[in-house]
Amino acid sequence: MQNYNGIFGFIYLLASWFMRLSVTNFLWFVLNIPVTIVVWTYLINDEGTHIYALPLVVLLPLLFYPASAALFAMARDWMRDEEHDSLLKMYVAYLRSNYRTSFVSGLIWTLLWSIWILDFRFFAENNDLLATVFSILGILLVVMNIHFLSMIVHYEMTIRERFFNSFYMTVGRPGVTVITALIVSFIIYIASTLWFVIIFFAGSLIATISFYLFYRSYLKIRQEACNI
């Protein structure tokens, strides 16, 4: 990471990160406005919620996953001290370069999340213990999904290999899994009470912090492999 000395260097660092996080998150949010509308409509309606499943099944792989992969690609560059002349141009470039992989991956993840939601809703109404088990499983899936996005932008792998390695990272590095889950939960909680956090910071903060934790684990794993 670059060194910033003195009060002016510290102010510059804060301003730089504020610009990075807010601009890229705003781009991510704009792309996901259709997803946000569907989710918001789902949350404020008590009946007929199943009708919102089809739009989400289409919108998640089409918009959410490609937009999120581009966000993680930007976070990866920041962790590697790579500067961007234009945040907009770089974000769009990553959106285009990763679109096919993130779209196909998004289809698979949407299927997995659909299965989890159906199972959770069924067991939540019939068995408290199984509801708890599926809640924990859901948290693990969130962390695994986040690791998967990090692997899309950091590794040259097949989709199958990324799924395997993101699963290994989730269960094999429990400390990182717990920290990631806690941080993501905290950011989501804050975003649920302060709407501007969703627009300007939530996604980019999750991507940046999660990739930082992932990248540290990646470096440790590589070092351990070299010491064998």
UniProtKB/TrEMBL annotation:
Domain of life where this protein originates: Bacteria
TM annotation in the entry: 51-76, 97-117, 129-155, 167-188, 194-215
UniProt cross-references to InterPro entries, sorted A to Z: DUF624
Pfam families attached to this UniProt entry: DUF624
UniProt keyword list: Membrane, Transmembrane, Transmembrane helix
Protein name: YesL family protein
Taxonomic lineage from the root: Bacteria, Bacillati, Bacillota, Bacilli, Bacillales
